[in-house]
Predict the structure of E3 ubiquitin-protein ligase.
Amino acid sequence: MSRLGELLQPCVSQPLAWKPRRILRPPTNFEDLFARYYHRECMKCSKSPLNPIICLFCGELLCLDDCCQTTQQHASADRITHTSEMESHAECCSSSSGLFISLTSSMILVSRGRQSAIWGTVYLDAHKEEDRNLKRGKPLYLCETRLRWLEYDWADQEWQRVYQWYSMFHSNVFINSIRDCHLHQ
């Protein structure tokens, strides 16, 4: 048996142990997350995003704005495709299904291919109420129950708490829905 064969032999008898993709644990206080990321520059456009989002797998700050869209011309058809930074990042970071948190609303955003949705929030105030879009200005704290729900939904890819999916062909509609999410329950 060759030296390589000897090295590989013990591995053959061992079963593979796959680790599931884990969501990063957000800070207990939303204020800590906000203070850390707000007004930081996007790595792609070097501007402070109007609609900053954070990847819940790697912690990278992203723009949901049009400035970071990539444009692709399709040779076979006279078609131009715009891809948001959220979609591009989800593709490379988590195989096209991504989870993000919006800094301006505390909402969790789900990205699957060319569709996105607002999941809800994992941050609640002291009375266990949401402060969607941070309108009331109350301190928000991480809700362990909602974080577990999010982890279950992610693991099963069953988005039980998503009521509407948005096509990212019209990303401005999705961005407006995030801003107005306090109107939707």
Observations:
- Strands lie at 52-55, 61-63, 70-74, 79-83, 97-102, 107-112, 115-121, 123-124, 141-142, 165-167.
- The chain has five helices and ten strands.
- The helical segments are 3-13, 30-37, 85-94, 144-156, 171-179.
